[in-house]
TrEMBL record:
Part of the tripartite ATP-independent periplasmic (TRAP) transport system. It comes from the Bacteria. It comes from Yoonia maritima. Its main location: membrane. This is TRAP transporter small permease protein. Belongs to the TRAP transporter small permease family. Pfam families: DctQ.
């Protein structure tokens, strides 16, 4: 079991490290979009796509960088009591909070999958079976959801990014849970 946990931690941390390092450059894409927005509003006809595209890039930057942030331990934590605790007591507390976070992420992931299925034209109540049906060919994509703005982009790409980011966050939280269990057992990570 110990070897499986170490292998899982190594694989998930490597994946989220690479994706997080790539997602970091999303801030430059966001800056470029906002710079173009300012230039086009000042000198040319304002672009319709810049505000929404900036929002989409920010969502991708935030949600794909979240697992990397958890991996680095750079998330916000109250150190009023936590900072003075022993490593073992911190690990016990982190196990409890990781379990709560995993439950919350599972609820969010289900909602994101449902929303993505809806954006692809599915109006039923079983979004996972819809995606399984897309793979097997028994389901078809319906009328796709679009934003109600002048630009009217399709919403499924950003919702797919949200599903991916939440799934990666769930994997990283499970990795952190494994690290805490190993710390409780006295292992060094």
């Amino acid at each position: 079991m110990r070897g499986i946990m170490f292998g899982y931690i190594r694989v998930v941390d490597a994946i989220n490290h690479r994706i997080g390092r790539i997602a970091m450059y999303g801030i430059f894409i966001l800056m470029g979009i906002l710079l173009w927005s300012s230039i086009s509003k000042t000198f040319f006809v304002p672009s319709l796509w810049t505000l929404e595209m900036a929002q989409f890039v920010m969502v991708g930057y935030y949600i794909l960088g979240g697992p990397y942030s958890i991996q680095l331990g750079s998330n916000v934590r109250m150190d009023l009591l936590y900072g003075e605790w022993s490593t073992r007591k911190k690990a016990w507390f982190d196990v409890f909070t990781a379990l709560l976070l995993i439950f919350y992420l599972c609820v969010l992931l289900y909602g994101a999958v449902s929303s993505t299925a809806y954006s692809l034209g599915y109006w039923g109540t079983e979004p996972f079976s819809f995606f399984g049906g897309l793979i097997t060919g028994s389901e078809e994509i319906g009328r796709m959801e679009r934003a109600s703005t002048a630009w009217r982009p399709y919403l499924w790409p950003i919702k797919a990014v949200m599903v991916t980011g939440l799934f990666l966050m769930l994997l990283q939280c499970t990795s952190e849970l494994c690290k805490d269990v190993l710390r409780i057992k006295g292992e060094t990570i």
